[in-house]
Design brief:
By secondary structure, this protein is an alpha+beta fold. It is built from three helices and four strands, in the order H-E-E-H-H-E-E. A hairpin with a 6-residue loop joins strand 3 and strand 4.
Length: about 110
């Protein structure tokens, strides 16, 4: 989370310097050309979507752990994990990290 937040901040700063003419392909191989600010926003959206419920009713950070979808007391529980699986977004490590992972609030 902290590295992602730093990359997003850097992209926004570079966009302010280079402006709209600076465009890059994102995601790679898509043929879609975005400004650096648009790329930063897309990365931020990918990060905060880990914390939002999907159409299946689970949050990617909880993967498909049924306790968070079936038990009423856990449905609105959002944990701040220490690490995240790069492929699935599942939260890993300690689940009470309000430090680095709280950066999600800035996005």
């Amino acid at each position: 989370m902290p590295i992602n937040a730093l990359v997003i901040d850097a992209l926004k700063r570079y966009d302010a310097y280079f402006g709209a003419p600076m465009r890059v392909e994102f995601p790679k191989g898509s043929g879609q050309m975005l400004t650096l600010n648009q790329m930063a926003d897309a990365i931020a959206q990918r990060l905060w979507s880990l914390f939002l419920k999907t159409e299946n009713g689970y949050r990617p950070i909880h993967k498909e752990n049924l306790i968070y979808t079936q038990k009423i007391d856990f449905q609105n529980l959002v944990l701040f994990y220490e690490y995240f699986d790069a492929e699935t977004g599942k939260g890993l490590g300690a689940s009470h990290q309000t430090g680095w992972t709280a950066l999600i609030g800035l996005l």
